[in-house]
Amino acid sequence: MVRIYMYTTIKTLYEKKISQNQIAKMTGHDRKTIRKIIREIQKGHSVPQCKSYSRQLDAYKEQIIRWIEEGLTAVRIHEELCKIGSTSAYPTVKRYVGEIKKRENIFMRIHTKPGEEAQVDFGYAGYTPDDQGKRRKTWVFNMRLSYSRLDYYEAVYDQKVETFIECHKNAFAYFGGIPHTVKIDNLKAAILEANFYEPIFQTMYKNFAEHYGFKPMPCRVYTPNDKGKVESGIKYVKTNFFSGRTFSSKEDLDKRLQKWMEKVNQRTHGTTKKVPCEMFRQEEAALMITLPLEEFKLSKVGIRKVYHDCHIYVNHNYYSVPFEYVGKEVDIEVGADLLKVYFNLKEIAVHPLQKGRGNFVTDESHYPKYKRISETELQEKYQKKMAEIGSFAEQLFFILLIEQKGYWLQTVKGILSLEKRYSKEILELSCKRAMAFHVWGYQTIKNICKNGSYKLPVEFNEERYEYDQKQIARV
C-alpha cells in the first residue's frame, strides 16, 4: 500500500516537471528509488498492485460475524470452528475476531417486547433561566420505552434521588402505565456501586420501585449498547431542541419542551420506521403495569453522624441509634410521621417524628447492656459506694436524692472521685460538715477537703437534723 501511494506521488510530481533531486527532497526517498520509479513511469507501467492474500478463516467470515453478533467470545468461536473442520489455532482466531470487531464495529442488537423495558438517563443541557430569571445548570431527563420509542422529557436543576423519582412518576403518568423493567445508567441518584451483577440501590429508589412494581436494572459499565436507545434520545433532544434556543423562564422552557415532545412522538422513527405514539397505543399500552392507586410519598433523605451518646440530630431533635454505630455515618429517611435510620441499607432504627426543638427520643435497647440499669439499681449501686465512705456520706446520699431529684448522679460521682486525692476519713468528715451547714454541692465538699475545715468542730441544729432524718427515712 505504501508503494502505491509513493508511486502515485512521484508520478504526479514528475508530470509537473519537477526534478528528481527536488522530488527526493519533497518525498524523503532516496534518489535511486526516485530514478527507478521514474523509469517505470517512462516505460508506461501502471501503478503496481498489491498482492491479495487469502486467509483460511476468510472462508468462515460470515459465520464468525454471526457468532460475534450473538455474543460468543473468541474462545467459543474457536470451539465452534473446530467442530466444522477449521484447523486454525486459537491465537489466529482471536486475532481474526479482533480485526473484525475493530473494522466492522459489531455489537449484539438487543430486542425487547412491548411493555417490557424503558431506559432512563440525564443529559446536561447547559444553563437556562429559572422563574426568577436566575441562570442555572440544567439537565434533561429522558425515559424512552425501548419497544415503541415513545419518549418522556423533563428539564430539572439537579440529579438528586428525589428529583430522579419525581421524573419517573411524571413519566409513568404520561405513559399511563409502568414498564416491567427500567434500565438505568449508573447514576449516583439510583446506584451506589456500579456493579451490574450485585446492584446496591438507594433505599428510597428501591422502595419506590417496589411500590410501582417495576424491576430496576443498572447498565453494565463501559457497555454503551445497554442504554443505546436512551442515549440516542438524550442526543436528539440536546441537538434538536436545546441547541440554538433561548428561554425566558422555566415555565417557558417546560411549555416549549412539552410541545416539542408531542411532536417528536408523532414523527416516524428512524429505526423502527413507525410512529412512536401509534406503535405504543396499538401494541404496548395494554401490556404496561397499571398505575398504583396510592401515590408513592417521597421522603427526605440525608446522612448523619452518630454521637457518642448514641443519638443523631435531625431537624433540631435527637433520636437514638444502636450503640454499635457510634462515630459512624448513617442514612436517614424522614417521612411524614416517621424517621427511619439505615446503615449499609439495613434498617437499624425507627422513631416517631418529633415536632418542636430539643426533644430526645430514646430507645433504651440502643444502649449496651451494662448501661441499661433501672433507677432503683442505680440508687442501690451508688448508695453502697457512699456507705463505704461512712454513715454521714450515706446520709448525704439520701439527702441528695431529695434535694437534687433527677440530677443527683453527677454530684455523687463527683464526691466519689475525690477518693483519688483524699482518704475516706477526710471525705466522711467533709460530708458531716456539709450536712451541718445544709450545703449539698460537690464543689462545697471539695473545698472543705481542700482547705481543711473538716477538722473544725461542728454543731447540728437539732430541729433541722431531725427533719433531715425524717426525710431520709421516707426515701
What does this structure look like?
By secondary structure, this protein is an alpha+beta fold. It folds into 5 domains: 41 residues; 49 residues; 171 residues, Ribonuclease H-like superfamily/Ribonuclease H (Nucleotidyltransferase, domain 5, 2-Layer Sandwich); 71 residues, no CATH class; 100 residues, no CATH class. The protein contains 17 helices and 14 strands. Strands 3-2-1-4-7 form a 5-stranded mixed beta sheet, with helices on both faces. It has a 4-stranded antiparallel beta sheet with strand order 8-11-12-13, with no helix packed on it. Strands 9-10-14 form a 3-stranded mixed beta sheet, with no helix packed on it. Strand 12 and strand 13 form a beta hairpin. Helix 12 runs antiparallel to helix 13. The relative contact order is 0.06.
Rounded mean pLDDT is 83
Largest sheet: 5 strands, mixed
Please report the first level of CATH classification, the CATH class of the largest domain.
Alpha Beta
Classify the beta-strand content into a percent band: 15-25%
Terminal CA distance: 108 Å
Coarse morphology? elongated
Look at the helices and sheets and give the structural class. alpha+beta
* CATH topology-level fold name of the largest domain: Nucleotidyltransferase, domain 5
How many strands? 14
| Subunit organisation of the chains | single chain
Helix content: 40-55%
**Backbone CA Rg:** 41 Å
- Based on the structure given, which CATH architecture of the largest domain is correct? 2-Layer Sandwich
Count of helix runs = 17
Largest sheet strand order: 3-2-1-4-7
As for the number of domains, it is 5
- Low-confidence spans: 221-226
Instruction: Output the CATH homologous superfamily of the largest domain.
Output: Ribonuclease H-like superfamily/Ribonuclease H
